[in-house]
Amino acid sequence: MGLPIGSVIVPAAGTAVQVVASGNAVSAVSFKARMANAGAIFLGDDSVAAASGYELKPGDEITLSFREAIDLRRFYVDAANNNDSLDYAGVSS
Hints:
Blueprint: E1 5-10, E2 17-18, E3 25-33, E4 41-44, E5 54-56, E6 61-71, E7 76-79, E8 84-92
Antiparallel strand pairs: 1-8, 2-7, 3-6, 3-8, 4-5, 4-7
């Protein structure tokens, strides 16, 4: 597997988008909301929404570490505004 680095665009606010479509097991991953975003991005599972996701305002970043590898396909994002995006970088196991 390649190094899991990329971006996710949420074309329609209120619609969860999977971070990656194919598997990438990681032991750690950082998520960063783009500075150019018009509003917040929400990180979570397939049921993520503004009311239930981890909120990242433009420029905010969170790094998660895991005892055991986790598949990036488990993460989804939603956005308060159309076409806002999130960058991610993982450490492969």
